[in-house]
Design goal:
Elements: E1 16-23, E2 33-38, H1 41-51, E3 57-62, H2 68-73, E4 88-99, E5 105-122, E6 127-133, H3 139-143, H4 149-169, H5 175-183, H6 187-197, H7 202-210, H8 214-266, H9 270-285, H10 290-306, H11 311-325, H12 338-348, H13 353-379, E7 403-407, H14 414-425, E8 429-433, H15 441-444, H16 457-465, E9 471-475, H17 488-496, E10 504-506, E11 511-513, E12 519-524, H18 532-535, E13 538-542, H19 548-566, E14 574-576, H20 578-587, H21 595-613, E15 620-622, H22 627-631, E16 649-656, E17 659-671, E18 676-679, H23 684-699, H24 701-704, H25 709-712, E19 714-719, H26 733-745, E20 753-755, E21 758-759, E22 765-766, H27 771-780, E23 785-789, H28 801-806, E24 808-812, H29 815-822, H30 826-832
Parallel strand pairs: 1-3, 7-12, 7-13, 8-9, 9-12, 14-15, 18-19, 20-23, 23-24
Antiparallel strand pairs: 1-6, 2-5, 3-4, 4-5, 5-6, 10-11, 16-17, 17-19, 21-22
């Protein structure tokens, strides 16, 4: 009995108590030493608790097969009752514990005695059982079952004899194991050792553990050994037949070689010889680099020896095809006309002035460096050049350095910008999607020793393009993952580094390939998910969301004509009025880009295509009132600013991947409450901003005209609507503080004013990001005044000029300036809280 017995009050005195470690697919026999891995939290807790006891004993039981589906379905699931484990278990001693670096522990246990489980107690971290020891199996106890010592000795000898037969037909059986078995004269221990060595399933092992009759136990072990002897004999016969087949294959190979010679003498083997000759001619004409040329010659010689009809010949032929078809020295001449590049960008994309200017700057630098490289190359022109040039940093063309990476919300045109750059340069364009990529072999290729091996995606893209200097877009850099198969982001470091990529080695080709002339372009939605070393190799160009006017122009100029063409309609088959397009943008899409807008226009065109196919070919105008028939009910209601000012409600601005959003922060006092309550799925940073705002108002209550007694006897509840959407970030600090101050001073916040900014306990208003998106969101709901941090005044250059002209921007560097411009005077607040009938509206907060 140990210190755990108090958990089983009223239990029989003959029962003992111990911790329980349930194992799946493992049965521990008495006298057997076994390594066990415990990974679940409760199992680890049991092991650690047992290690603290003097005797380090615990009960090891086996989980029943019918309970395994539930436990395997959830890695955190644990056993719940005695019905889920076998009643007969083994009392064991922990000999050693090893903590694993990946979590969990490995322990070495030795079985001592069989026990029967009677009761179970499950606590939060451990499982304890009441058990009764079962009688030990010995020669003396076997007599009670009618067995004679002679019978026991005969069965023991039979087991040893059968092990000798197994050793004779199975040379892989270790001699040390056989010596231990043959030297063991204890029939019980020998039976248990044999049962653990044979390929028994869990139910068979459990039945042997539960056997109380030694003679029956030995008979069952003998029967299993006889079956194993037969299995080993059959295995030996099968291996012998396999060896004969291998010998036969070798004989056939030699016969084929002789047949080939005979066919050559008769002129019948010309087809295979002709294939080798064609490959040799292609090899000489391919002008491969020296290393690739030597490798191809070696493989061609191997193909000639083994023959193209063999399995190995097929692998070699595929490899040679890749070597010969790769663009080792094929390039296209770049079109470095900047006027042409600007025209292509303007034709393909509306707006994005800063982005286009940055691309032109990059191309201008590329042009100047390329020209300088040609001048230097002409001055240092060598007298002669080798027939097979080696892989080395490019000298004929300027090596592209920093990689452009377009970052922005989905649907703003990142991929299409890459296509436009390739079209402007006159280079082939290839897109490599990295979304969900977790295996680095997808980029670096698989070794040819694997069945179905292929080159990596980079080499495949070069093969498709047919030149060594295409434009390759690495799409979704922020979606690259990592697991046991490697880290693809680390491979990208080599691919994008101009100091390394001139000798990039694909594992399938097993040769260096020059990537220095490839124009790599990256895209991402969220820079925070791009590894820092990879980010260091990228030049970031941010693409913000489009304004409503920009979306309208894009829809009229690009999206609608493209969808008309896809639907098979003439260009004049439909005319969508501007006010109709505005309604589609406002009520059927809510995004920073235009992808969803194009889908909705595609829906309209397909519905009109049905009408056109039925013979109604006259042009049609789409008015706003027809949208519900074409697209169904409105998906998004038009956002509006609050009409009636009320104390405790302030309008804030937020940034999301889908663009800007307007948030209405609400605050109410809780009579006799004592804490700050926050709701609306707020993140940690946003919760900290709420606490800072509350503390600032409390600390400066006197200067704000607030009675400090309101804080002592009342709690405060702050809520940000749209509770199903997670929210985080510090930019709501100004809005929360304004809502709290409005509530406690009974002064309403102006409904035509929105605000954003981070705050600190000193009352300073700190800068934030996403100004353009936030301003566009405020304009969408009709807000005309925006309070911004003083340090964000420079960011207004990113806001479209027409939007800047429509709105009033007030810059603040102190919270006092925010409250002065956001709160209505007390008299105006009193009138605002009085309804049309002259009755006072119920206050949102009271003391």
């Amino acid at each position: 009995m140990n210190y755990l017995t108090h958990l089983f009050p009223g239990a029989p005195k003959t029962l003992e108590t111990s911790l329980l470690l349930p194992l799946r697919n493992v049965v521990l026999m008495p006298g057997i030493t076994l390594p066990v891995v415990a990974g679940r939290s409760r199992s680890v807790a049991v092991v650690e608790a047992t290690a603290l006891t003097p005797r380090k004993e615990l009960v090891i039981a086996t989980v029943r097969p019918e309970a395994l589906p539930r436990l395997n379905a959830d890695e955190n699931a644990e056993i719940e009752s005695l019905e889920e484990i076998y009643p007969v278990a083994t009392l064991a001693v922990i000999q050693r514990i090893i903590h694993l670096p990946v979590g969990g522990v490995q322990l070495i246990v030795q079985g001592k005695q069989r026990v029967r489980l009677e009761q179970m107690q499950i606590s939060d971290r451990i499982v304890e059982v009441k058990f009764q020891r079962l009688p030990l199996l010995t020669k003396e106890t076997a007599i009670t079952f009618g067995s004679s010592p002679t019978t026991i000795e005969a069965l023991t000898g039979a087991i040893k004899s059968l092990w000798r037969e197994i050793a004779a037909v199975n040379p892989n059986l270790p001699e040390e194991v056989l010596d231990v078995l043959l030297d063991n004269d204890d029939p019980v221990e020998l039976a248990y050792q044999t049962s653990m060595l044979l390929p028994h399933d869990v139910e068979k092992l459990q039945s042997l553990l539960e056997q109380n009759n030694l003679e029956v136990l030995l008979q069952q072990v003998v029967a299993s050994l006889k079956q194993e002897v037969e299995v080993q004999r059959l295995r030996g016969e099968i291996l012998g037949e396999t060896k004969k087949e291998i010998d036969q294959q070798q004989r056939e190979f030699f016969l084929r070689q002789q047949l080939k010679k005979i066919q050559q003498e008769l002129g019948e083997g010309e087809s295979e010889t002709q294939e080798i000759q064609e490959l040799r001619s292609q090899l000489e004409a391919a002008q491969l680099p020296e290393t690739a040329y030597k490798q191809a010659k070696r493989e061609l010689a191997r193909l000639e020896r083994v023959g193209s009809s063999s399995a190995e010949g097929g692998v070699i032929r595929t490899y040679l095809d890749w070597l010969l078809e790769m663009p080792w020295n094929k390039t296209v001449q770049d079109n470095l006309d900047l006027q042409n590049a600007r025209a292509v960008l303007d034709t393909d994309h509306h707006g994005l002035v800063k982005v286009k200017d940055r691309i032109i700057e990059h191309l201008a630098t590329f042009k100047l460096k390329s020209q300088q490289s040609k001048v230097n190359n002409q001055q240092d022109l060598p007298i002669s050049s080798p027939p097979h040039p080696p892989i080395s940093p490019s000298s004929e063309h300027y090596t592209i350095g920093t990689v452009l990476c377009f970052v922005g919300p989905p649907g703003v045109g990142k991929t299409s910008l890459g296509r436009s750059i390739a079209r402007a340069l006159g280079r082939p364009f290839e897109r490599v999607s990295l979304g969900g990529l977790r295996d680095e072999a997808e980029l670096r290729g698989h070794r040819r020793t694997y069945i179905g091996a292929m080159p990596g995606r980079i080499v495949q893209a070069l093969h498709r393009s047919g030149v060594k200097n295409p434009a390759i877009m690495l799409d979704e850099l922020d979606k690259v993952g990592m697991d046991y198969r490697g880290d693809p982001a680390s491979v990208l470091l080599e691919i994008l580094d101009p100091q390394q990529n001139y000798c990039f080695r694909d594992l399938y080709l097993d040769l260096d390939f020059d990537l220095s002339q490839v124009f790599f372009i990256g895209t991402a939605n969220d820079l925070s998910k791009v590894p820092a070393p990879l980010l260091d190799r990228l030049e970031i160009i941010e693409l913000s969301g489009y304004s409503e006017e920009e979306k309208l122009a894009i829809a009229q100029k690009y999206l609608l004509p493209r969808q008309l063409e896809k639907a098979g309609l003439p260009s004049d088959a439909v005319q969508i009025l501007p006010e109709t397009l505005r309604l589609v943008i406002e009520c059927y899409t809510r995004e920073a880009g235009v992808r969803r807008l194009e889908q909705q226009l595609g829906t309209i065109c397909r519905k009109l295509a049905v009408r056109h196919a039925e013979g109604k070919t006259e042009p049609m105008q789409i008015h706003p009132e027809q949208l519900e028939d074409l697209l169904g009910p409105k998906i998004f209601l038009q956002d509006e600013m609050r009409k009636t000012p009320r104390p405790g409600v302030a309008t804030g601005l937020a940034w999301t991947l889908a663009g800007g959003e307007v948030l209405f922060v609400e605050a109410v006092q809780l009579p006799q409450g004592k804490e700050l309550v926050l709701t609306g799925q707020l993140g940690e940073i946003m919760e900290e901003s709420a606490h800072i705002a509350y503390s600032y108002v409390w600390a400066n209550a006197a200067s704000l005209g607030i009675d400090t007694r309101m804080f002592r006897g009342n709690g405060l509840h702050i809520h940000v609507p749209a509770g199903a959407v997670p929210k985080d970030g510090p930019s709501a600090g100004v809005t929360m503080l304004t809502a709290i101050a409005s509530l406690l001073t009974k002064r309403s916040v102006r409904t035509d004013t929105a605000m954003t900014g981070e705050i600190n306990l000193s009352g300073e208003v700190l800068p934030i990001g996403g100004v353009r998106e936030k301003v566009l969101a405020a304009r969408r709901v009709g807000i005309k005044r925006i309070l911004l941090p003083q340090q964000n005044a420079k960011d207004l250059v990113d806001v479209p000029e027409d939007v800047r002209n429509e709105m009033e921007f007030i810059f603040c560097d102190r919270i006092e300036q925010v409250l002065e411009n956001a709160l209505l005077p007390p008299d105006d607040s009193q009138r605002a809280n009085t309804n049309e009938n002259g009755h006072q509206q119920p206050a949102l907060a009271h003391n």
